[in-house]
Every structure is written in C-alpha cells, then in structure tokens.
Amino acid sequence: MPSGDVSCRLAAVCQEQRSPMRLVPCGFLNGFPLAGPPRCVCYKWQYQLRSRTGMRKLVLGSCPYWKFYQLVASRSVESRSSRSPLSCAKGLSVSVVTYHPDEALLARTLSSLGVASNDLRKSRPGLSVSVCIVDNGGWPSTSSVALASLGKTGVECHLISGHGNVGYARGHNLAIEQVRSRYHLVLNPDIDLDPEALSQALDFLDAHPDVGLLSPRIGDDDGRLQYLCRRYPALFDLFVRGFLPNALRKLFDRRLARYEMRDRINETDIVWDPPIVSGCFMLFRTEPLKRLKGFDPRYFLYFEDYDLSLRTRELTRIAYVPTVRVLHHGGGAARKGFAHIRMFVASAFKFYNRFGWKWL
C-alpha cells in the first residue's frame, strides 16, 4: 500500500470529487509502461477526477517497494462528447507527437487543423474528428490554450502526457493503439494544412478503396514543392543529401533527383505506389495501419516512416495526391546537431539491417 500521507491525500481528493479509487497492478496502466522492474507485483493507488475545465487526470501514488515516489500523469483535454478517446468509428482520428515543440508552429498546426476539420464537416455532416496530442516532454502551458481553441471548433481533443520521451514511433503508437476511426492521420507538429486538405484527401480515399495510405503535396516555408517521396535509398544518397555542403551536393544533382523521384513527383499528377513517403503527413485507412501494428517501436527517431512505408506497400496501395496540399516547416538531421546525427545513423543501421543494405 502507498505511504500514509500519499494515500490519505489521494483518498481525500477522491472523496471530495466523488471519484472512484481502486488498486491497479504496478507495471502498466492502459498500455503505458511505468517505472520499476517487471517482477514487481505490488499495487499502486489510482484515482480519477474531473475538474471544471474538463481536464481528466490519472495519478499514481508510490510503490511500497521503492523509497521514492513515481508519479505518472495522463491528462486528457476533452470536448463535451461522451465518446471514449479516439473512438469515432466512422470518422477521422489524428495523432501528433511533440517534444519541446515550437509553440508558434504548434499553434499554427492546430489552427490549420481546426480550419480543415470545419471544411471537412461541411461536406460530411456528422463526421467526427478526434485529435490526440502525445506529449513526449516539454509541453508548453500556452499550447493548452491552442488545444482548447481547437476543441471549441467541435474537434474532440486529447492530451497524453507523463510517459516520458518514448520517441516518435512509440509516441504515435500510443495513440494508434486506441483509435477506432475509419481513417487515421499521422501528423507532424510543424505542418500547415490547406483548408481543403482533409476534404480532398478523404474524397480521394473514398473514390479509391484500394488505397490504404495517402501522401500529399508538401511545400516548404515559401510554398515551393518539397520532394519527400523516395525511392529505396543507398547509403551514399543519404550521406550526400544530408551531410555534404551545397557546393559539393550539386555534383550529384542527377543522382539525388532520381532518389527524390523528381522524374515522377509534380504539382498535378497522381503517383501510384511510391516506395517511401514522408512521415510528416501520412493519412491511413485505420484497418491496414492496425494490421501493421503502427510504427516499428525500435526506431526512436528517423527512418520510422521509411520502414512503415515499405511495410504498407506490401499490404495495400500508396498514392501521392498533389491536390491535397500542406506546408512543412521542418529541417534535416544534419542541421539539428550531433545528437540528431547520432540518432539518424542508429536508425539507418536498423533500417538497412531489416530491409537490406544498398551502398551505392
């Protein structure tokens, strides 16, 4: 049992809020791993309360076998809907993983998502849209205002927090495991959606039931087309594109153009079955995504979208659809410092070990 003052405080809060208190096994809560060895079979106090703002909080007390407290919180900012998280059976669910996000970019992403969702519901009355923000750490308090504003547009909003930095792939999987929607969008926190992006995307998927994954036309900060569809990469391509200075990179323009599918990707033509698409915006039918079990959790950051694209292509069709338009404000690993380069190399090693090495 938890220590006296912790359990008393939890009991007092639960009694005040008229919330249920029960014991749950130490080790896992709703699929989220907690600190402590797997052999620990003690119990922790759990309580749930709902504040006036609609904030739902799960807090765990201390494990009696440890001399420190391990507090884990999972917060959920909800709309007034009575549905369980991400349970819109015929709707659209969206997952966004953040880690110390740029507040302005995240606010723009959520705002554009709200506008696109409103446009979607105009053409599809009654369609539910559910958004899950997975906070891997550093969630800014000001961003809760942007999330609340999104909720006021009729979008069901959830915030999962307190699990630590589990990486991009595992973060999205926390949301994917819960979804019951028809479509699921994997979205970066640095994306601006065109107002008609979601309407165009779902119209295309409805018209092409054999397509399980859609990739949009992705522009940069200035709106210029980014070539983010890929052929299978050689190690040399990754090195040239990510680490050579511009002056030297120009010597390999033709090679990089082939890798980036510049002969196929344009502003007007649908491209069927590109081998690899960008993880900044991946719109799935939820059924094949569930069959694939989401992202491979072995990737902490980088190459998880390469891996998932190749596995998706074995199961269903992929389409690049340029009428679906977004802007991407992200940057490459080499421009983010040594830590990102190290993660990039580690993920590349895992990717090639799985799918086969290609040097040149």
Automatic annotation (TrEMBL):
One of its Pfam families is Glycos_transf_2
Cross-referenced Gene3D superfamilies:
Spore Coat Polysaccharide Biosynthesis Protein SpsA, Chain A (3.90.550.10)
Q: Tell whether ATP-binding is among the UniProt keywords.
A: no
Q: Which InterPro entries match?
A: Glyco_trans_2-like, Nucleotide-diphossugar_trans
**Record domain Glycosyltransferase 2-like: where:** 93-291
Q: Which GO terms describe its molecular function?
A: transferase activity
Q: Which UniProt keywords apply?
A: Transferase
Q: Which PANTHER family match?
A: GLYCOSYL TRANSFERASE, RHAMNOSYLTRANSFERASE WBBL
Q: What is this protein called?
A: Putative glycosyltransferase
What is the species of this protein? Burkholderia ubonensis
